Amino acid sequence: MSNPPPAVVLHIWTIAPRHIPRGLALLARQRRDVRALPFGKLLGTGSGETFAVRDADLTRYALITSWPQAHAPAIFERGPIVGAWQRIAEGRRRIELVPVRSRGTWSGRAPFGVPDDSGGPGPVAVLTHARIRASHLRAFWRATPAVATDLAARPGNSFRLAFGEAPLGVQGTFSIWDDITAMTAFARDSIHRDVVRRRIDERWYAEEIFARFRVVSDESWT
With contact defined as beta carbons under 8 Å apart, do 24 and 58 qualify? Predict the structure, then answer.
């Protein structure tokens, strides 16, 4: 019998500008505790227009976790890491996911397993993450705006988030699509396809991961 897929949860918190110092402090202070989880990444976010520092959104933060047991997220979410963000958040979003495809690594690990599933009908989520070689940052930044503009105008794309880790050049995207057809149309578009080809041919990334998920639940609170 194959192992069940991991339980993956993405938390997104929006804070008021007056809480930005507390948000930055939490981002720094909680990194060690998050690293002790089976898998977790505490992330800053941005507009994704260029992935440069000027895109950073200091009022929005994200946490992605992956768990081998289905009941583990509920236990974790009653703990101090999530609680600290909930106390300063004025907007919250929780997206529960099941991996259906994943290739590559994140910090040397395969946090979403190696699933090979069709995913079925309904909303599809996609996560990409890469550690960009310093010598290729300029090429990456120049190519990103066209892809971001195309993504923003895409029918069937209901949500998109750009995120980053320290140091500069370790970053990614998360998006939700109405269905696999809409997602595939974007992936096959010439603008996106040409950037992907350059990424491979010129070896922009030192590490990367691409994962697709079935959206189990998507809840927001204010």
Answer: yes
Whether pTM > 0.90 for this model: the answer is: yes
Alpha-carbon gap, residue 202 to 165, rounded angstroms: 23
Does a structural domain hold residue 205?
Answer: yes
Domain at 153, CATH number: 3.30.70.100
Q: What is the pLDDT of residues 110-152, one digit of tens each?
A: 999 988 887 788 899 999 999 999 898 888 888 887 888 888 8
Q: Report the C-alpha gap between 70 and 173 in whole angstroms.
A: 25
The total number of residues written for the chain in this structure: 222
Cα 46 to chain center, whole Å?
11
Q: Is residue 1 part of a domain?
A: no
For residue 117 the two structure tokens come to 């599933």
Terminal C-alpha separation, the chain: 42
Domain extent for 187: 7-221
How many domains does the structure of the chain reveal? 1
Instruction: Flag whether 197 is in a domain.
Output: yes
